[in-house]
Amino acid sequence: MTAGLSLLSLITAIISLLFAAAVAAMAFKRFKFPYTIGLVILGIILAALAYNFEFFEPLRQFTLTPQLILYILLPTLIFEASLNIDSRLLIKNIVPVLMLAAPGLVISTFIVGIMVKFMTPLGLGGAMLFGALISATDPVAVITLFKDVGAPKRLTMLVDGESLFNDATAIVMFNIVMGMIVSGAAFSMGTFFKGSCDFALIFLGGVFIGALIGCIMIQIMKFTKDDPMLELAFSVIAAYTSFIVADRCFGVSGVMSSMGAGIVFSWYGTTRFTAEVREYLKKFWEFAVFVANTFIFLLLGLTEKVMFFDIGKSKGIFLYILFAIIAVLVSRIVVVFGLCPLIGMMKNQKKISIQYQTVLFWGGLRGGVPLALVLSIPVSFANRDMLIGLTLGIVLFTLLIQGTSMNFLIRLLKLDKPGTFEKMLSLQAVISSKRKVMEVISNLEKTGHFSDDTVSVVRDKYAAEILDSLKELEDLRDNPENASTVRQIIWSETLNVKRNTYHGLFDRGIIQETVFRELEHSLNSQQESITANNIPPKVIIELIPPEVKFEKFILKLLKLVFPEGKLLRLHYAKALIINLEEAIALVIAVKDINALLDDVSRLYREHSVALNECRDFYKDVHDKSIAHIEKIEKSYPEYADQVKTRVLRQVGFDTELKTMKEMVEKGKLPESVCSEMEAEYERKIIENRKAV
Hints:
By secondary structure, the protein is mainly α. It has helices spanning 7-30, 35-50, 66-84, 87-92, 94-101, 103-119, 124-133, 140-149, 153-183, 189-220, 228-249, 254-272, 275-311, 317-345, 354-362, 368-375, 384-412, 420-447, 452-477, 483-507, 513-531, 546-559, 566-600, 608-635, 637-665, 671-689. Helix 5 (94-101) packs antiparallel against helix 14 (317-345) and helix 10 runs parallel beside helix 12 (254-272).
């Protein structure tokens, strides 16, 4: 990153760059200009100042290096992306994501390699190496824009997911091609087969190592007692350890390893981390990514200016860059518009619209990874300067031309416009929040601290806004074409209530982690049914679940040989208890749903058929759940008593903890005393969870 700078000068320069980036970010945000692209431009300007003014001369020492990108900045970006990724949506779109990231990258490598070989002085090996390194996409600017304009979630997942995976595939492909060039191996079916096997081993091996390290860290974190600082520290350790161990110790993909660790943390985050810890993790990693992207794109601008100044002297380099841009665009067209229609023809795969394909094509920006790979090429490598020049040219073109025009493209394709479903939900939220404000204003008015005129002005403003939102919602609601959408909204709202209820029950320790995960899985399936307009969704409560029936059958057989059968009895009891807790959770959720339907009925009075359909459905669910609970209580009273005892104890512990915290807030109990008692209650809660 630097050379010839003292420690104090280095720290001063880093802080100065961060300050410049933060100030620039405020300006970019105000003018709605992509932050990362703006940093590249800022970096180029700073480099120009460094070569013309003595005051800025220390900036000449700052350049991007492969080690800085791969071992310091990249693990942060990969881990954060994996930590915050919607795993359910990723799994749902895993086929198109992997098709674009793996076969798509291989196809892109060959197309770019062959075209560049015939249009530039590069040999086949060098051209293929360039094809591999330049195929890694970096859509940071695009994803940021998606968030600003509210682009569809699936489109965001396709762009982000492809980038997450193809960073790894590009690095693996680059190393395989480089290894073949160094060893002098000729391109043949044999080398292609060996390369494919190496690719799979490095790719999957990285995922395994990362997931294993992630699981180990999660187990260690059980002893932190929900300390946010300690759990944050272990997340950082997991991000970097997974990358370094995979890359240096086992020779597999460090990127896939960091991703594997991040997905493990994401998977366990909803159940193992408290709300406070989850918030700490989110904020910390958002800041870490901000800093990482700041230095990547700022130093990218500095590097572009410095290297282009030297490499630009090469004869014909700009013409070769133009040829390389054409090759990259052609390969992207073939990959996106060739593979996406094939994916749509596959069984159970949702088609990717032509609008999405257009964004995927034009949004394939390049960033730090291609530059890190090209700079890692040995100095003695033939035509190294040309490879660097071509890479810099492609990166600059995609960022400054494609990146800055993405906003226009998204608006042209009308992908920034929310659908009727999203718009009606948004209006519902606005109306509910403003009505809540009206209640608060009424309560404040009763205190006598505010004049009638002041209260009237504010109240009238909110009342007018509520009327405007109601009018807009009524226009959408009363449109016959939106009847199906209203029905979907009503059913989706009930799922949101159930999700919140389940989270509350789990956070209070009333249901186990296994139960919570099964209920979450059921909710996700129901949401997909509602989205596909398959209403009502299936909620099946069997009196005896299939696994219990099977285990009971096996138990009867094994009793003839092993009269004790303790292990099977244990599994049998566990399955029954899980099923009982699920039924209890459903009963509690239905009560909350009925309250929601009473509230929603004020907004959708004209859709009484859909509301009554929903009420009848959940009444049936409630009755079946009660019957199921009574059946277990009658047939297996010992298991039912265990669950009831544990739930009552948990409610008691939860109530005592809340009461103590309220006393601390009111100053009736010293915080030190509360901390000691809280630790004791947490120990009892853990023991109570293990009691069943």
